[in-house]
User: Fold this.
Amino acid sequence: MKRKIRAGMTSGLLAMAVCSALHSPPTLAARDAPSILRETCQGCHTPEADNGLSRISHQRKTPEGWLMSIARMQTMHGLQISDDDRRTLVKYLADTQGLAPSETDGVRYALERRLNTVEQFDEQTSQMCGRCHSGARVALQRRPAEEWERLVNFHLGQWPSLEYQALSRDRDWFDLARKDMVPLLAKRYPLDNPAWKKWLSSAPKAEALVGDWSFSGHLPGKGELAGVMSVAADGSDQFKVSVKGRYADGSPFNGEGSAILYSGYEWRGNVSIDGVTMRQVFAAQGNVLQGRMFEAEHDERGLDFIAAKQGSSRLLAVQPGYLKAGSETEVTLIGSGLQGQPDFGKGVQVLEVVSHSPEQIKVRIKAAANAQPGLRAVSVGALKGVNLALYSAIAEVKVVPAFSVARIGEGGGSTPKVQGRFDAEAWGKGADGKPYRIGVFPAQWKVEAFDERAKEDEDVKFAGQMQADSGVFTPGDAGPNPARKMSTNNAGNLKVIAAVDDSGQSLTGEGHLIVTVQRWNNPPIP
Assistant:
C-alpha cells in the first residue's frame, strides 16, 4: 500500500531543537553524557545492570530520533535540560545506541526531508502506523518486543481518541496493535542486530573525512551544479566546511559552515550558501558522501548531493547526462582521481578534451546520426559507474514528483509557504522497446484545475502561481479569502503540466499538486 508521508502529532519545539541540536557542533558542555544520564534522566529511568537505564537502554535510534525523545520529555514531562546538555546527550546516544548504515537503507528520505516521497509499506503497517506519521519513523528505530508493546500503550495513553479515528474504530485496534504489530515490529526492527555491533567495531575514524571533496548535485527548478567541498577538523567529530561550486548556468554556489558526525557516518551540517542557511544530511560511506542539502527555513528547496573524496578514484556524474543522435555538445565529467581517456560507448565520438583535471573533465562529444538509442556506460580509464542517455526522439515526458504537496502560508502569520518544485523528465524507448530515462529537460510549465470541482472553485486563480520557465509553484497566502466562495482559504487541487520541446515537437507530461493548509508541526522525522 502506498501512502504519502506527512507530519505527525508532535510539538513545534522539535523543529527549533533540531536546528540547534543536530546540525551545529556543541559548545563546551559542562557535563559529560554519563553524568547527564545519571543526574538528569535517572530520576525517572531506573538503573539496570551494566550501567543501563530502564527504557533508554532498550532502544536504538538515529540522531533525529533521540532528539525527538528528549524533546518529548521536555514538552510532556517537564524535563529541565540545557541546550548544551541536550546536544551532548543526542551525540552520545546516537554514537552508542544508533543505527548501522544498512539499517537506514530505503528510509533515508525521511531524514533527508524528501516530504513528497510516496511510501511503500505493507498494508498492515500503513494502516496501523502510516495514517498518523511516516512509516519511516517506525523503521528508523530498534526495540525488543516488550518495548514495542510499551510504545503501543504509550500511543493509547497519550492520544485516547486513537481508537475512534479512521482505520481504528472499525476494528479491534488495541488487540491488533499488541498481538499482531508488536511481534511483526520486533522481528522486523529488533534491538539486537549483528549489523550494529559490526559497525561499531569497524566504523572509520572521523578524521578520515578531513580533506577536499569533489561533488555533483541537482536542484529542481535550477539545474545541475558541481564543485569542491573542503572539510577541516574542528574538534572531536566536528568539522569546518567550505563549499565552492557553480551551477550549469554559471551562477555561484559558495559558502561556509560547520558539521558534526553521529554514529560514525551520519553527517549533519549547517552551511550558509550565498547568505542562505542550508542543512546537510549525508551518509558518509568510505570515500563517498551522499544525501541532500536543503534550506533551513524551506526544506522543500533542496538538492541531491553526492561527493567523492579527492585522493580516491570515483566517477560521480556526467553533466548533462544525455545526447541526441546526430548532434554534438560539451559535457563535464565529475569525480575524483579522473585519469585516462574518457569513453562514452558505441556511437559516441570524443571530438575534443577541452580541459582535464582529477576532479572535472570537459569533453566535446558527437553522436552518430544512426546511433541506437539507449544508455551508454561512461568510463574514464578504469573508472565506470555513470551512464550517458543517447536518444533519437523523446517518447514520454514525466513530471517529477508525480504527486506533490504545497502549503499556503504567511498572509500575516508566521508560518512560511511551502513551494512545489518540479522537474520535467524525458524518457525514451530503446531498440528493445523498453523505456529508459533520458534526463531532466527545460520545460514550459503551467497548472490547470485537476477536476470539475477544482474548476468550479477556481483553484487555478486562487491557489498560487507557477513560474513558467522553472517549474516552481508558490502557493497563495494563508487565511480566509473573501474573494472565494464562503471566504474559504487558498487551498486547491491542481494538475501540473510540463511542455518539452523536442526539435519543434511539443510533448507534455502531467503531475498532481495538492495545495493545502499550513504545516503546523514539523518534527525532525515526519
Observations:
- The domain at 314-391 is CATH 2.60.40.10 (Immunoglobulin-like).
- The longest strand covers residues 505-516.
- The CA atoms of residues 276 and 295 lie 7 Å apart.
- The chain is about 20% helix and 40% strand.
